[in-house]
Amino acid sequence: VHSLSFARAVEQIAEIEVPARADYIRTILHEFERIQSHLLWAGVAAHELGFDSLLFLAWRVREQSMDLIENLTGNRVNYGIVQIGGVRRDISNDQIPLIEQGLEYYRGLLDQMKTVFLDDSTIRMRCRGHGLLSYQDAQLLCAIGPTARASGVAMDVRHDYPYCAYGDLDVHPVLPPQEFGGAHGDVYDRIIVRLLEIAQSIDIIQQCLDNLPTGEILWEKKLPKLLLTLKKAQGEAIGRVEAPRGECMHYVRMDGNEAPATWKVKASSYSNLMSWIPMLKGEQLADVPIIVASIDPC
After folding, report:
1. Spatial CA neighbour of 189 closest among 179, 199, 203
2. How far apart are the C-alpha atoms of 270 and 8, rounded to whole Å?
3. Per-residue confidence at 114, pLDDT binned at 50, 70, 90?
4. Whether the Cβ atoms of residue 201 and residue 65 lie closer than 8 Å to each other
5. CA 47, 51, 56, 59 torsion: positive or negative?
6. What is the pLDDT at residue 195?
7. Cα 209 from Cα 211, distance rounded (Å)
8. Phi, psi torsion values for 8, nearest 5 degrees
9. Cα 165–chain centre separation
10. How far is CA 196 from CA 74, 124, 126, 174, 199, in A?
11. What is the Cα gyration radius of the chain?
């Protein structure tokens, strides 16, 4: 997500138009990042609750998304897929059935994950009504991502300021549904939002595959020509993306030299740290680990 945020800022300054196919591929990888990140968080949350068998289940399920990411990019963690002006690798016709097979795997497992997390009486007792962040506090403390949405704040950069292929897709902020009593802003709601966002990511990836455009994946294939364009670029811009933890921002200023004149990063966790203050008031010491973990701090 950071490479995408930085690249988008530079592309705005240099007036580089990313090909449509590259935007769709960026979106597909962006959503796989969300799936694996939320599943990693689910395992950590289970561990903080002392439920290590659920940790092992969540991380075993996560491996499927990591394998798909490796197949598409060549790497499991630092993908190196985003390039200024597009993406480094295309998605071949042979890879599409593998992606769809992976999506079907997650559709089949999602109900099981919901049952294990949301219907377990111990998890409900440990999480419902704990780590409360009200709608007003979420706005006052500038919470973002699943932390804010679990408190009923309908904000999502993919919907509010569409980028990549999101403007062509059906994307809405995920809030705790009425079947779970609406938004309470507790740890339990933050679990609900992340599980529902996994389902949303599956749907977004399928939409991208169904509507994947043809054409180029890079604005400029010749790297020396691209670098020459960037050295001449002048101006400033902000790259904003909806990372798994919330809005990620990169501010870049370029003044016609080889390197950026200014480059500032605001990662998602910085925006959510202040939320701990109201969350932790009046709580038992034993509940601190899961409350702290509920914002998915990095």
Report:
1. 179
2. 21
3. confident
4. no
5. negative
6. 94
7. 5
8. -65, -35
9. 15
10. 28, 17, 20, 7, 5
11. 20
Q: What is the pLDDT of residue 113?
A: 84
Total count of residues recorded for the chain: 298
CA distance 225 to 241: 27
* Residue 198 CB contacts under 8 Å (≥ 6 apart), including other chains: 34, 35, 38, 39, 106, 110, 113
Both tokens of residue 44? 């950590």
Contact assessment for residue 80 and residue 68, using Cβ atoms and an 8 Å cutoff: no
Q: What is the pLDDT of residues 255-290, one digit of tens each?
A: 998 889 999 999 999 999 999 999 999 999 999 999
State the average pLDDT over residues 65-87: 92
Residue type, 33: E
Q: In percent, how much of the chain has pLDDT > 70?
A: 100
What's the 3-state SS for the chain? CHHHHHHHHHHHHHCCCCCHHHHHHHHHHHHHHHHHHHHHHHHHHHHHCCCHHHHHHHHHHHHHHHHHHHHHHCCCCCCCCEECCEECCCCCCCHHHHHHHHHHHHHHHHHHHHHHHHCCHHHHHHHCCCCCCCHHHHHHCCCCHHHHHCCCCCCCHHHHCCCCCHHHCCCCCCCCCHHHCCCCCCHHHHHHHHHHHHHHHHHHHHHHHHCCCCCCCECCCCHHHHHHHHHHCEEEEEEEEEECCEEEEEEEEEECCCCCCEEEEECHHHHHHHHHHHHHCCCCHHHHHHHHHCCCCC
For residue 87 the two structure tokens come to 């993406």
Count of other CB atoms within 10 angstroms of residue 183 = 23
How many CB atoms are located within 10 Å of the residue 11 CB?
21
Condensed to tens digits (0 to 9), the pLDDT of residues 149-194 reads 999 999 999 999 999 999 999 899 999 998 888 999 999 999 999 9
pLDDT for res 228: 94
Q: By the 8 A CB rule, do 24 and 212 touch?
A: yes
